[in-house]
Design goal:
single chain; mainly beta; 7-stranded mixed β-sheet; 4-stranded antiparallel β-sheet; 11 strands; globular
């Protein structure tokens, strides 16, 4: 089992920044590709970005490319999501996820590609 705990959510203004973190425990962190998803009220959970086990490969959703940056620290068992130039449509609960395989294509966006999920952290962007 892998436990994932997100932190760092909150309220931000349009054009502002928020940094999210996710810490993993339970199994060797380097076994897992990691990802961030988000879910707005009344909508399906949506892929944001994935990062490979070594951190050298990433896969971003078009909606966040150029604004969001994912990173991972395998020594600390953490991933971060730096979110810049926030828009109202970024408002959602953000979830950290772990899976056995990094996908550079559309499979990264499938919920079934990930075995473990955190509880989520709320990000609200006010206009």
């Amino acid at each position: 089992q892998v436990q994932l705990v997100e932190s760092g959510g909150g309220l931000a203004e349009v054009g502002g920044s928020v940094r999210l973190s996710c810490i993993a425990s339970g199994r060797p962190f380097t076994l897992y590709a990691m990802a961030w998803f988000r879910q707005a009220p009344g909508e399906e959970r949506q892929f944001v970005v994935a990062i490979s086990q070594t951190g050298d490969l990433t896969n971003y959703a078009d909606s966040v490319t150029g604004r969001f940056t994912i990173s991972r620290d395998n020594a600390k068992n953490t991933i971060d999501l730096q979110m810049n130039n926030l828009k109202p449509e970024d408002t959602a609960v953000y979830y950290c996820a772990a899976g056995p395989t990094f996908y550079s294509g559309v499979a990264a966006s499938y919920l079934a590609s990930y075995d473990y999920w955190g509880q989520g952290t709320q990000v609200t962007v006010s206009s």
